[in-house]
Every structure is written in structure tokens, then in C-alpha cells.
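Lecture 7, part B: from sequences to assemblies.

Below are the input chains for today's worked example.
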Amino acid sequence: AQSVTQPDIHITVSEGASLELRCNYSYGATPYLFWYVQSPGQGLQLLLKYFSGDTLVQGIKGFEAEFKRSQSSFNLRKPSVHWSDAAEYFCAVGASGGSYIPTFGRGTSLIVHP
Amino acid sequence: DGGITQSPKYLFRKEGQNVTLSCEQNLNHDAMYWYRQDPGQGLRLIYYSQIVNDFQKGDIAEGYSVSREKKESFPLTVTSAQKNPTAFYLCASSRTGLRSGANVLTFGAGSRLTVL
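Predicted structure of the full complex, as C-alpha cells:
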């Protein structure tokens, strides 16, 4: 069975600083990987996804993530954080074969200081 | 625009009452899902359906029931058997099959249920 670990419950950064949110997954084959963002009281929005090919994936809102098979990681990055990026971020892993229902991590809450 | 509509946005319930949360999608997706979200616990799968008139239990199905009579609709009933129903409930949908896009979920805005 697949699983996802987001080791950081909260991350605090200053506006304009760089950001990296960590995600580690467990899956026996090549996974499908996702990052979603959730604003307070709202649903989740897809930021980016990795299925195959280039391991550096570009997403919306200036985010990118890099798939590192050797480290079983899919960390989310942004070079300069804006106050509007404050939200909850979820990493998810989906199976490339069989059941396609993704498994979500517990989320990382991003706090942005002015 | 295509999307998922959940209603109501906020719902209050007395203990012992059943309540039904609505979820409607116009994305022509075959699969639909219900997740429960509690602070610090991420998203936990309650039920999912890959086709009309069929659904499967997720990780925390006890105290919940669903139906899938139409492709567009997947209502969730929170029954009085659910011991701790206060939570944020999210409905989602996706394509199915072996295509990679089957893994991509589109979410509704959620429904917050509070038991008084």
C-alpha cells in the first residue's frame, strides 16, 4: 500500500523568502505524485503533478517540485513566497497501476510573515 | 464552467439526527469520492464510487452511507451511528481507467458539519 509523510506540520517564512515543503512517499513502483493547496474553509486545488518524464515539474502560482526516486521524495519549492501563499499544502501519491485512488499526507500549514 | 458543487456549506445537527450532504458534478467524471478532514489528520477516505449504482467503503466508512443513482450525484448521509461527526467534508471526482489522469481529483468547496 502507498503512503505519504509530510514531516513538517507548520512552516513559517517571511514574505519574499524561498520555500521548500517536504514530502516523502512509499510505493513499490513508479508513483504518480501530486501537490494540492487548500485555503481556509475551501476545497483543495491541484498545484502540480508528476506522472513520468522530466523529474522537475512546474505548476501554477510559481510552484515547482522535484521527484527524486533515490530519496522517495517530491518536495515542493517556490523561490519567493507571497502573503497569499499562506495555506495548507497536501502531498499525495497515486498508484501507477491498479487502484488509482490517491493517498494524502497530513498536510503542512504555511504561515507567511510580512 | 465545470466543477463540483457541495451543499450546504455549513450544517448544524443535533445528536441522534441523520443528515445528508449533497455533491453534484458536471465534469462528466465517472468516479466520485467523499473525504473527511479533521485538523492535523489530513484527508481520510469515507466512500468512493467508480460507476453508477456501485460504491465501495473507504478507510472510515462506519456511520456513513452513500448512494450513486446518477453519474452527476453522490450524496453522503451521516447517520446517528457516527460517534464523532463534527468535521469538514470534501467531495471530489475524477476520471477512471488506466489513464494517468484518473489519479487527478477535482474537489468541491466542502461542507462543515457541527453536531450540537
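Note for the exam: The two ends of chain B are 36 Å apart (CA to CA). Keep this in mind when comparing with the next example.
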